[in-house]
C-alpha cells in the first residue's frame, strides 16, 4: 500500500506491506537517490509473508516531494525523517535494511538511535565513498579495456591508485561512468534481471528523475556524505548482518575488513551475485532477511 506521509513538513512516498503485528523493517534505498521502487518490485511481497515492511523514497527522491531551491536540506534530514516516520507509524522498534548508500544511512541511524533499532542488515553498503569510488574505477578500467579505450582505462587506474579526496573521486567516477554508456551496468552486475517500470509514464519518470537530481546535487554540495563512517562500525551496539554479493565492487575488501570491527556483526556472502542481491538472488535474499530478523539469536 503506497501512501504519502507528511514528515517534518515534507511529503514522503511510503509503501507498507505485511501485517502490523509482524516484526517491522525499514528499507533505505541506495544512490543517493535510487528510490525504493526496484526493491519493492522484487522483494516487498516476499518479505511481507513474515515482516511488516516499510519502504520509502527518501526526502526529495523520485515520488517524494521535490526539495525547494531555498529549502535547507542535508544528510541529517534523511536520518531525522526515519525518526519521525517511526513515531507516526507507532512502531516502538524496527530493524533497518540499508542497500548501498542506504547502508551508510542505516549505520548512522543505528548509532544515533540504538533504542529504536532491533537489528541492522547492510546489503552491499558503502561506508566510505572514497573506497567505493576507487573500487568502481578499477572495475570501469577493465570495461574500458575490453572496449578498446586504453586512454580511459589508464585514467581510471590512475585515479584508483591516487589520493584524491572522496568527493573528487566520486565526481570523476560519475563522469567516466557516463562514458561507458549502457556498459556501466556491468560494473555492478553481469546478470540481467528485469524490473517492470510501466506503473508510471515516461513523463512521470522524467519528473521523478528531476527530483532525484536535486536531492543528489544538494547532498554533494553539502559534502557530508563524503565523510567516512567507518569509525562508527566499532560503536554499533545492535546486532548486524552484512549481506555481500560475491562480485559486488561497492562493498570492496577494505569495507569487509572494516566491518569485522562490528561487535555483533555477521557476514553472509551471496555467490554469483553482484551489487543487488535483492533482485539477483531473490529467494535466497528473502530467506536470509526473514531468518535473521525473526530469529531470537544471530543465525549467521
TrEMBL record:
Superkingdom: Bacteria
Gene3D superfamilies xref list: alpha/beta hydrolase (3.40.50.1820)
Entry's Gene Ontology molecular function annotations: aminopeptidase activity; monoacylglycerol lipase activity
Protein known as: Alpha/beta hydrolase
Record-linked PANTHER family: HYDROLASE, PUTATIVE (AFU_ORTHOLOGUE AFUA_2G14860)-RELATED (PTHR43798:SF33), MONOACYLGLYCEROL LIPASE (PTHR43798)
CC annotations in GO: membrane
Domain AB hydrolase-1: 23-282
Source organism phylogeny: Bacteria, Bacillati, Bacillota, Bacilli, Bacillales
